[in-house]
Amino acid sequence: MHFCFSLLCSVLLFPVTSLHLATAHALNAPVEQERSHSAQDPNQGPSEFNHHLLGYALVGAGLVLLSSQVSEKFRSLRYVWPILLILGGMFLATWSDSEIWPRGNLNWLWLLQHDREAGQHKVFAILLLLLGGVECLRIRGKLHRVWRVWSFPLFALLGSSILLMHDHTGSSGTHSDEIKAYLVNPALDADGKMPTQEPTRDISHATHHSDATHDHKSLAAIERSSTVNDPTLIDLDGKSAGGVHSNHHMSEAMIRIEQQHLWFVVVGCTIAIFKFLADSRFWKHWSVPYIWPAGVSVLGILLVIYRE
Known about the structure:
mainly alpha
């Protein structure tokens, strides 16, 4: 019976994945043409790779958990689950952001003070390390009952709540002069590469360019003024472009990312709830211990098919 239920949980992953893929395809369709005409964000590839790699780790962790609960001969596999969490946390801590040391050339004070997205990545890394450590102690029977029941759900809910505020659109500010005070190696740029020197230009050409830039800025200021005073221009919040919320206009990519993050939050909260029910034995139905590992695999699949 337990084997059949575990198999059923695995089969249920496919409809959820198909639904998410259909949603992602519908969201991606309007922007394919836009991407062909605009330069791709250089951070998009590495960001998607980070999500995909963690996704594969979670899919494996969920399947390992299901296997360890189906049969006694796979019982020892339960130690693989926290190890995968710890490895995922170490990866996020060291490799999630190209400009932060040790991958880049900026020390961690920069992300604490200037780079909110990178700072949140490190918070997720710490949470994964804590979850992995807690699960190791729980499996070995070294945790007090209160910590055994409450620690994982609380950490999981904390991570889900932070995910609601996670921003992939903010600028890290690594092109500003302020980064010089945060460079680990002053001879390199923020990404750890030799800085490129701009070629010298003729003075007359520079003067002409400066005059053209000034004229362009003046024209842009006039256009912005007419836009602000035009009540017919509406942003996605239903506010006029001249209102106080005009800076909250969301692009197709931002909407797509937020919707995928919402799926992550829903599945993460489900995992936290059923993990609490399984560890506290508050609901003693035989299916409860199998639901949250299946949820871990679902979350992993959503990360694997993540697109920006």
